[in-house]
Amino acid sequence: SEMCIRDRYSCPVSVGDGKSKERAYYIRRLSNTVRADHDEEVALIRGSSSKTTFDNSVNGTATITDISWPYVSEYLTSVGSNIDVETASAISVYRAMGIVRGPSDLPRPVNVGLMMFSMHPEEFFPKTYAEVSVIDQASGEVMRDVRFTGPVAYQIQQMMMFLNNGIIGTITRKRFDRIEAETVVNYPVAALREVVVNAYFHRDYEIQEPVKVRIYSDMIALINYPGLDRSITREN
User: Fold this and answer.
1) Roughly what angle, to the nearest 10 degrees, separates helices 152-166 and 189-201?
2) How many other CB atoms are found less than 10 A from the CB of residue 123?
3) What is the SS3 string spanning the chain?
4) pTM as predicted
5) Which residues contact 222 (CB under 8 A, 6 or more apart)?
6) pLDDT tens string 91-109
7) How many other C-beta atoms can be found within 10 angstroms of the C-beta atom of residue 104?
8) Do the Cβ atoms of 112 and 56 come closer than 8 Å?
9) Once rounded to an integer, what is the mean pLDDT over residues 27-32?
10) For residues 5 and 46, what is the distance between their CA atoms, to the nearest angstrom?
11) Could you give the C-alpha distances from 172 to 94, 163, 188, 199, in angstroms and in order?
C-alpha cells in the first residue's frame, strides 16, 4: 500500500525529456511549495495510509445519549443549516452530520461528535478544557485563574466573551494633525478569535494537556499540543 501511495501522490522531480524517473513529494510551507524532507515524507505516508483519523473514529465507550440534542439544534440554527431540526429525528440528524456511525440497533458517536456536542467531552478525552491565567508581569504571580469546560465550540464562545469583557480594551487619543481623535484597540478581536479557534482545532486530543492561555500586561500566549507543525521553524 505504501508503494501505491507513493505513486499516487508523488510527482516527477523534472519534466520535459521524460527520461528522469526520480519522484518526490512536495508540500506547502507557509506561502511556498517545497520538496518534503524524509520526516515529512514519512508523516505524509502514514497520514495517507490511515483509513480513519482520530476525529472520525467511532468511540466504543460512548452512546448516542452522550451527544446533547439541544447543543446540536442550537449549532445547526446558528450556522443556518437547512436540516429541519423541528421534524427530523435526532439519530437521522446525527447521521446526516456524520457524527454517528454504525448499525441501526447499535449506533455509536464518532470522536468529533463528542468533542463538539457532548456536555462533558473530558469524560472521553481527558483534559479537553482550557486554562486561562492572568499573570502579574512584575511578580510572576497568577492574579486570576479561569477554566472553560463543555463542548469545544461552547468553550471557544465563552473564552471569547471572557477576553472581550475583561482583556480587550480601547484608548482614545487626540491627534495634532487632524480634528478627529484616534481610537486604538489593544488586541483586534478578529485576530484574537483566529488564534483561539486554531488553538482548539489544531491540537492533538490524544495528548492529555489542555489548551493554555497566559495573559500578561504586554502579550497573550496561547499554548496547545503538540505545538507548531514540523514545517514551521521558530524563525518563521
Assistant:
1) 150
2) 13
3) CHHHHHHHHCEECCCCCCCCCCEECEEEECCEEEECCHHHHHHHHHHHHCCCCCCCCECCCCCHHHCCHHHHHHHHHHCCCCCCCCCCCHHHHHHHHCCEECCCCCCEEEHHHHHHHCCCHHHCCCCCCEEEEEECCCCCCEEEEEEECCCHHHHHHHHHHHHHHHCCCEEEECCCCCCCCEEEECCCHHHHHHHHHHHHHCCCCCCCCCEEEEECCCCEEEECCCCCCCCCCCCC
4) 0.70
5) 195, 196, 199, 211, 212, 213, 214
6) 999 999 999 999 988 999 9
7) 7
8) yes
9) 75
10) 10
11) 49, 20, 15, 31
**Position of cell 515529512?**
40
Comparing CA positions, the residue from 56, 62, 92, 86 lying closest to residue 73 is 86
pLDDT higher than threshold 90 for residue 196: yes
Nearest C-alpha neighbor of 62 from the set 103, 120, 149, 104: 120
Amino acid residing at 98: G
d(CA 55, CA 209): 17
Which has more confidence, 30 or 185? 185
CA-to-CA distance for 112 and 128, rounded, in angstroms?
A: 12
**Residue of 155, 225, 229 lying closest to 193 (CA atoms):** 155
Mean pLDDT of the region 189-193: 92
Nearest to 162 by CA among 182, 140, 145: 145
